[in-house]
């Protein structure tokens, strides 16, 4: 029931699992939290199983259900295609949607290969000339505390950068009863913790620092190599073809040293994305398990009263907070999708390309490819090709 | 667009400020997160200013707007009246709604006086015999970490209770430019930090412990006694007629010692509700500024490996989590309203009175009255009258 | 082996249990950490059991052992008498030592009764006119982080005080096998958690705020009322005659509200002294279980970048740190006794009375007496008599 | 004044700066905290400047002062030589001391080169056959919380190891006024953060896991390449010849992935050594800035009540705690030297070689050499030679 004078923006979503549910919450909520120039309408959701997609449409609040993503793209009431499928289908859907004249939001990682990501970026570039918008869903950029971190870095508050260290740790892979789900198969998922978690932290390290990685040195590992086949008989197992974990180091353009770690076997760490930046004038630290907090050390203060201060990123003048609650009333994980929707809707209305672009997604893909190459070559430092 | 086979539950809300926005988010979201026997429909919202309430209806997603709460109650498409106004109007609206055969959800505190709360409780009792449901909105009971805390206490995990200590600290009152808003006027707000914050922590202390307070000893204070009149000329001020802060101690039925503190002038504490329970077999600690975490000390473990453990209350088998995200993907403040809506909708469908009842709200009011009486009588220990 | 040109200061210590061991470590270490005008010499230690005191002297590093404290006081090589006995003997020993012309350091609480504390204070006053020094051992004043807190308050960094809240929680009393030790007997210990832990936090609240308490309202409780008699037969128990826990509220001279809690039955809290001060311009928070850290919120900073900052009180310009290690190399509990020794030795050399004085100790005793009186009188607000 | 019946152990210390002061505190204190079979006597300290070493002897409590370390070694009253000099002199002094029949404690890193470390290890091996003891001072092994961590790993409490991540961050190098001190010169210090901080964390990672590193991949950096010459004129600078920071990854024998980072330019991190181990059954986490705490996640507990628990490593049955204070009364940095002294004295009395041995120190040196080699070879994975 959006305001009658606000023009609608028809959204069609492909996929309705975890990411689809999270995106739906963003689309349903964004106009309730923010004043927007366009009113998102949850026009249709798409999935292969007719009964399941119909149930998902009802549950998540989509007006219609489709079983063929080409039909979804073709709908007149869909102006924006939101892609929430596994990575192996991103390129085909995104390129088709862009060629059909639609705006596109694509979940991360942008694609499973650099080649796909390049084709998508080219399609986005061409579409951009026709006034279309394409965005990749690195939603953590829009955690308020991390948006505040970016603002402090951009304002020069931490000075010359020395270090970025990031880890993203989960532990669901430690469950030995876990079957061989799609996330553990290379042909579906592209890679394991690296593509899933590593894509996030590579993007964040570059986004927060405002610099690109010039090269990386990496090791990867699959600790649990056999898993029960879903639907298989007792003792029937299949081979895990993706990594469980990766450690890598890198260099940013300024020469700053970086260290990275991702794992699905870090017992007790449920969704712990930690990032710290150290600069000549200050430092920033963040932990996704406490996502309303940013720690800031101002190194220009007298030493006797300096220290990491815990900023609750819930003040009215913090990024994205104008739509929410009074100070101290914290937000959650899903709010990042509302914020993403806000920025994307405004960008579409204004005709301005929002970040992160498909080119940004491609660049992350190139870093991931360099990581895999380094891991295969005894961790040797491997340059990340620059955008042409 | 809820599933067609689920019967609707028409909701009418009175008030659309902070609480109204939060409740709206709960109503809009609940059927998306949970499978419900009834589908909440945001039928109408009510406020006195026609233009403002119309805008609020559009913004918050309500189908219709009303300017007279009596008209809202009279609507056929409204089965549940959700009261989000200041405390001075709770009794009149709630009683009228109950008498009109509607279910009622009333924001806390239940009323501004014990007499009003008693009348409301009597009306709820009578309505209950007609199958109507009434509930008071102590939403913090439905923070997952606190619901987990209640479960651990009920399961005997902390043994015999010794202590409950609770503080609820904010700092917006420290702003000397803040004008004399309604929350600072006794005739509107009933009391200050005591009714606003104290009601929450009295309810929580009793709910988590499973015991009632038998008496209290209290001191209150108004630190900033004059504030600028809203709309007044330069230098025109009015008298603050409510408390800024209160400290009080009490006894639970078992003899456990309790300590409480509320303040609006605790610089740097934005919305810090801390609660700790110590028992013979364990302890629990919680901080609302980190609402996804519960700290649990199991005192039955060997001392050499015991300690407060930080449970991220985001596991699938934690209370309310079945509707949300994978482990470690935290929730926010507003989710408490979704959880409240879930439990209320299910209770209405099942015809079972949910907690907290109006009688629970009345009991909290009696504690608050005893606190005020004690504060007037030199902090002397003042019994809380038992429910008759 | 102190530097030959530094005059010695002969110390005689009475008592060699926990406090005696801690004071010994302070005396042995102080000249190694700081440059002092006098060199403390561990001349003699005193206890009733000849074998035990001789062993303690060897273990703790005292040159001689005495079995009669009067003999210790009479020794020519003892200029300073350090009293580490239970509270019931403080007055007699301290007064005798002062009358014998010795300087005195007396462990807290100064005495078990106000009358004793008054007599001691009078003796100290008289001795002061003869150039003697008397000091009471509230050692937590000399935790560097708390000395820094005092400095920040004195410098006006937190503005007008609103609140002080302090709790001191331990859990050794929760052990049901614990026998009826002297600390649980009123005639030895004077009181329970109140005198042992409460004395510390009353002193700290007043010291850090720079204000005195004008009155208090209190409740106390003994949860475990019978304990096995030490050396008794199976099932033989005796009555616990002191409190296990106390909650109390108070007022400081400025009108600031205070809340206090002490307990020996707070499962999982080993030695947790927490203190927080809120003022119009800032707040301070401290936890003794993390004693190298002080949290400081500067409320005069822009809200978007304010927050509690964790100051590691280990910088060279932090109080007492000039004698220790590089930044970040933390100190422990026992260092407070070294710092106390430093200040006392310097005060003796300079002939200047150090804080806390016996009069300070007496004032704390008056607060404790008012707490006990209030607890007997239904928690009614009970004034603390002012010093005449 | 140790107990007359305990035989003495004469200690001679070379060097009296930071490490010398810390070791002195350990030697002075150890017999006061623990019952020992030998009584350490602080016989003599050695340094080149006669006045300065005499003053240090007085200040730190050593009976005699020497200006030639050969003279110190030759003293009859010196049975144990404690080497606290910069790394370039370790080999010469240690070998001479061992050849002279003395026991040796050598500060870490064992040496500046692998060749030196090999010679020292050979000398220690030969001396060992004559009943002499040699130990290298990786004092952090003796932080009680880390000794507890080792115990838990050894007891199988974390299961099969997946990850070790360690960082050791300081920020004193960020001070642009810092002159070119010896720690910044390769010929004195051997390396920078790598040798100073990296030696600690390589040793800890191996010690806690109970495994050796099989290879490493590394990057190093010197961010501030020119510093003022000490005693030089305005603008006179010299070249910094050691690293400011290093990031490296590695493999343990079991295949567990490791990540490491050291820096002297991590603004706000004063002495932050963080280590975390993840295994199939649990995880451990530690931060040297909170050295009394160990975090332990028991992954075998039900998920709904699992979480990292904060164990205060101050219980009587925690390692080294029998000598100290009641629970919750924390220790500090310097206590590690007392613990080291305790274990060394007992080992000498019992004639049993204590850990870490010189061979352990040599192995760390080989890892550091492999790190430097990898850093020169584009971070390629470089094997650590096994001990022959």
TrEMBL record, chains A, B, C, D:
It comes from the Bacteria. Keywords: Oxidoreductase. Residues 10-130 form the Gfo/Idh/MocA-like oxidoreductase N-terminal domain. InterPro entries: Gfo/Idh/MocA-like_OxRdtase_N, Gfo/Idh/MocA_oxidrdct_glycsds, GFO_IDH_MocA-like_dom, NAD(P)-bd_dom_sf. Residues 148-284 form the GFO/IDH/MocA-like oxidoreductase domain. This is Gfo/Idh/MocA family oxidoreductase. It comes from Streptomyces litchfieldiae.
